[in-house]
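Dock iron/sulfur cluster; give full complex structure.
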Amino acid sequence: MKTLMTGNEAMARGAWEAGVRFASAYPGTPSTEIVESVARYREIRSQWAVNEKTALEAALGACIAGVRSMCAMKHVGLNVAADPLFSSAHVGVNAGFVIVTADDPGCHSSQNEQDNRHYAKFAKLPIVEPSDSQEALNYMKAAFDISEAFDTPVLFRSTTNLSHGKTPVIVGERVEAPPRAYERTQSKYVLMPAAARARHAVLEERLLKLATYAEISPLNRIEWGSRSIGIITSGVAYQFALESLGQKASYLKLGMSFPFPKNLVRRFSTEVERLVVIEELDPFIEEAVRALGISVEGKSLIPLTGELDTGIVARAFGLSLASLGAGVGAKAQAETAQAEAQAQAEAQAETQAQAEAQAETQAETQAQAQGGTRDKADAAEAPLPAPPEQVPGRPPMFCAGCPHRGVFYELAKLPVAVSGDIGCYTLGSLQPFGAMDTCICMGAGISTGMGFQAALEMLRVEKPKRTVGVIGDSTFFHSGMTGLLDAAYNGSGLITFILDNRITAMTGHQENPGSGFNLSGDAANEVSIEGIVKAFGIKNVATVDPFNLEKVREALVAALADPGPSVIVGRAPCALLKRSAVRKPAYYVDQETCRKCKLCLRVACPALYVENDMVQIDADACVGCGVCSQACRWGTIKILSKAGDK
Ligand code: SF4
Ligand code: SF4
């Protein structure tokens, strides 16, 4: 069926046809109508986010849980979402994930003018740029395929002209994308430093593969006309170029402008007499062409600012709109048809050339890899500095008496996915707890968990059955509040566990709005976390002592019984916080009744150690929190002061 659609409507249709099941967005011109249109398709759970960051994080969470997901925002919105954007490039995807950025050249309704193609290069993500509504639909489907094939989020760039302009579209039917099975893979989805370092290497390898793909992708195509001018272009700039120059030029149209198809560009440049880049805003393509050592014109002809149109492009080539005639559109259409026919005739030769280009790129990639090996070999030959004195390896773990220990001890026993955040409590992902599924960036513990929970509800999986978002007090104030507001507004079944240790512990005990002190150490307004949560409309709110395992368990069980959003605040000060730490009597293990089951070691307290197969407690390290004694089933771990002279 053929119909007229705006680019935004076509993107939504493309997402629907691609089998997308979750979409989140914050409104902003020119992207607003994308999820408004998505919302008409009942197969997609679509929602307004409270900002672009929570939108991206929620969609990322849903894709990790196994359903194709998208988020959409205007160009400046991606600035707000930049934190999870960069992390998402590191973690990759499970099911396909597309991030739409709708740029606003000319600042029709924006506070600035920025070219978000730079984000693709900066975050090392592929970017797809359609030039009309049909391509918006087709490329959206292609973007999901690329996302899954290369395990990467895909940036999808629109501009105002594409988003709001209407062109004819042939629509298709929805093809259900089978949900992808989810497996807890902490090395991929929990971005602790060791995992993040490894994921960066994966990201670089993926970019090389994407660069090879860019050379042969049908999204990048050559349309031959006169070879006296060769135009390299992308997005709607292609339409303006075509309307202005028609068959007077040949076109290399980049539907995927990053990674840059170097060999395709080299080949095109050798076949035309004059090479010109026509692009809106920054010289993104022009600079990439120059970096290849190829002489090219671009911003010397086409303005660096504002929105392009046919007249601007025509004048750049000494033509006037009047000279193009009133039937410029019809002419361009006829020329397009002619170009397409010619392109078809040349397709066979093109395929052959692309295969050669691919071989060339693969050889280049191999050479790069060999270069890397050589570098490593050279480094290996260099004299190494004297090794430091050998020290035994020691995995990072919660301090003795950390209030987070008991919470992760209990979470690890439940059939839940845990969406974590940045702070000491990220250690809960490590053994013996292993209780964390994702950790993306500050504040994402709640919003990624919301998307994950949405996917679990859609897929009705049994394990994990629910999602628990875990976040610290300082991180909650930093950017977790917006995620929780989003979850409350959208009625998410997420359980949020706020680990309030009364300080910003990980960075070295800095005050925050909940601690009651300011930077100078003077008394400050002590903001109530429970007050904020209740103001968001969340009714199921509990506060527990995280050292009391039974109470932690009861609160989690109550939250699991409630299908709506609920919040548990676990409040106890960081064990290293001097002003509130009350050191209690240490515990000891009664060796006569100890059954050597070593269950207590599952709380992973550094004060516990094993000697002669017997668990012991270092009384100097123990702060008397009592968590290990609750983990012991036999009542063998007792308070030292009651043991008299022990
Ligand atoms: S610094 Fe405080 S919050 Fe961090 S692990 Fe140690 S006790 Fe726990
Ligand atoms: S009571 Fe047990 S868990 Fe708590 S600090 Fe002492 S040894 Fe560690």
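Observed: The CA atoms of residues 432 and 602 lie 6 Å apart.
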